[in-house]
Automatic annotation (TrEMBL):
Residue ranges, annotated region (Disordered): 323-350
Source organism, top-level taxon: Bacteria
Name of protein: Uncharacterized protein
Length: 350
């Protein structure tokens, strides 16, 4: 019999998205933490930044205090990317707690291996997370004084090597939905898909910053010939990298259907908002929830099982994602339509 669960079954509302505003309103928000930690007022730390580790540790301590738990001595990170490894190392470098990390993927064609490098283990099977946790127990990690931070995208939800493709598919569908909403039949869907796929590649990250808001916007403006991608590619090859803001400001002959979006993007990028294309992110929540509902996008059974076991031993469980809040928390209109926050949306355990 298939089992279903939610992220909140493990973490309750101890979930943090890109804006570092905890879903649990009883935890301190980023403005309060900026003051507490002496962080700059005009920047939101990202996972690869040392400041992000400081924010996570402060939130974990606050969450532990709220449940009257003993002082934290350890933080462990479970994820799938280099950024998760860096977060572990930054936590360890703070020298306030001991830190360990697990970086996983399912690689069925490779031998099952769990390789340690310092405090971080890398595995070719998600199932090896149990062996990793057993190693930590043998090393004396006191789980009742440990915060377990689990990455969401392509780790707990859509584990890499298993159902992670559904996350990418949801974004691609959301991009097409927004393009259709804005342009109707006035664009070539095949061309849009080709541009979107191209712009997702690493060689375009100098302009897109690996930000899906930027990627979708560029694909949209290129499809209607406002941006000349081949010409921009020549600039990239020459070491010249125009920013999206520069391209938008210089844009000529923008169709009337995209003029409001152009103004919105310019305004939001100039204000330092890393999520300027809100319409796309709202659509992404819808397409992601649909894939969770029909079983295409699943929760990791191994991580859920481990989380439950560590929870029973007193561990504090939290989840974090670089996903913008707009693609994880429904707008008032979406709430009225019955859409739930991502971490409270049921998904199949697989």
């Amino acid at each position: 019999m298939s089992a279903w669960a939610t992220i909140a079954d493990l973490t309750e509302d101890r979930v943090i998205y890109r804006d570092l505003q905890p879903c649990d309103a009883s935890l301190p928000g980023l403005p309060a933490l900026r003051t507490l930690l002496g962080l700059p007022a005009n920047a939101t730390p990202r996972k690869r930044d040392t400041a992000y580790a400081r924010v996570i540790l402060a939130l974990a301590r606050a969450a532990q205090a709220l449940r009257n738990g003993p002082p934290l001595t350890h933080v462990v990170v479970i994820g799938d990317t280099e950024n998760d490894r860096l977060l572990t190392l930054h936590l360890q470098a703070l020298a306030e707690v001991a830190a360990y990390g697990f970086i996983g993927v399912d690689r069925p064609v490779a031998p099952a291996t769990l390789d340690w490098e310092g405090v971080v283990a890398t595995a070719t099977r998600w199932a090896l997370v149990h062996e990793w946790a057993a190693t930590l127990t043998a090393r004396g990690v006191p789980w009742a004084q440990t915060a377990v931070l689990i990455d969401i995208d392509k780790t707990l939800l859509g584990p890499r090597g298993r159902s992670d493709g559904a996350i990418d598919d949801a974004r691609a569908e959301a991009a097409l939905i927004v393009a259709t909403d804005l342009l109707g039949d006035r664009f070539d869907r095949t061309v849009f898909r080709q541009y979107y796929t191209t712009l997702c590649r690493r060689e375009w990250h100098a302009i897109t910053l690996d930000n899906q808001d930027y990627t979708v916007a560029m694909a949209l403006f290129a499809t209607v010939d406002v941006f000349d991608l081949p010409a921009i590619e020549v600039q990239l090859a020459a070491g010249l990298s125009p920013t999206l803001l520069e391209l938008l400001i210089a844009a000529q002959q923008v169709p009337v259907e995209l003029q409001a979006l152009r103004r919105q993007l310019i305004e939001q990028i100039e204000a330092g908002n890393p999520t300027p294309f809100t319409q796309f992110r709202r659509a992404e929540l819808v397409t992601t929830a649909a894939r969770m509902a029909d079983g295409r996008l699943t929760l990791s059974n191994e991580l859920f099982t481990l989380g439950r076991r560590l929870q029973a031993q007193g561990a504090l469980l939290m989840a974090a994602s670089d996903k913008p809040a707009e693609s994880a928390l429904p707008s008032p209109e979406q709430q009225t339509a019955g859409l739930l926050p991502l971490h409270r949306t049921p998904a199949l355990l697989d």
